[in-house]
Specification:
Largest sheet: none
Shape: elongated
Mean pLDDT: 92
Number of strands: 0
Radius of gyration: 18 Å
Helix content: over 70%
Distance between the termini: 27 Å
Structural class: mainly alpha
């Protein structure tokens, strides 16, 4: 965006700082979206597929065993891959799909306070899936992207 279209800064001295940090804003958002998902998946990984599958079966989600494996892999491996920007579009799309299921199928009837975190994660993951890895990513370093 050129200067004629940019809003006038209230504190013009911050302009240099904003220009300096701007290239790193998206990588920070991508990293945070992936990294914050890992602690949700880690206890599931440590507990194993059985307890996760049992919980999913109680919620009426079948095939619970396969879905439990998918959730664990998406949250731990997928979260890590989005954080570092490796196979970013694939993993971000997988996260967005998981979060859509959690939002609209699992949590929808439990009220907005239970839905909002999954909805936010899902929208962020969807945006990342559309935008890709961007700078400061493994995909960029190896020179290819999905």
């Amino acid at each position: 965006m050129d200067n004629a279209q940019s809003p006038k800064l209230i504190i013009p001295a911050l302009g240099g700082f904003y220009r300096w940090v701007e290239p790193y804003c998206y990588p920070l958002a991508r990293f945070t979206t992936g990294a914050i998902l890992i602690p949700n998946g880690w206890p599931k990984l440590m507990a194993g597929v059985g307890p996760v599958a049992t919980t999913m079966a109680k919620q009426g989600m079948e095939p619970a065993g396969l879905m439990a494996v998918c959730v664990i892999v998406i949250e731990v491996l997928g979260g890590a891959c989005v954080a570092v920007g490796f196979l970013t579009r694939f993993w971000a799309a997988a996260i967005a799909i998981e979060m859509a299921v959690l939002t609209f199928i699992v949590q929808w009837n439990n009220g907005y306070s239970r839905v909002e975190q999954f909805l936010l994660w899902g929208v962020l993951a969807f945006v990342i899936a559309l935008r890709g890895s961007g700078r400061c990513s493994v995909d960029r370093a190896i020179g290819w992207e999905l």
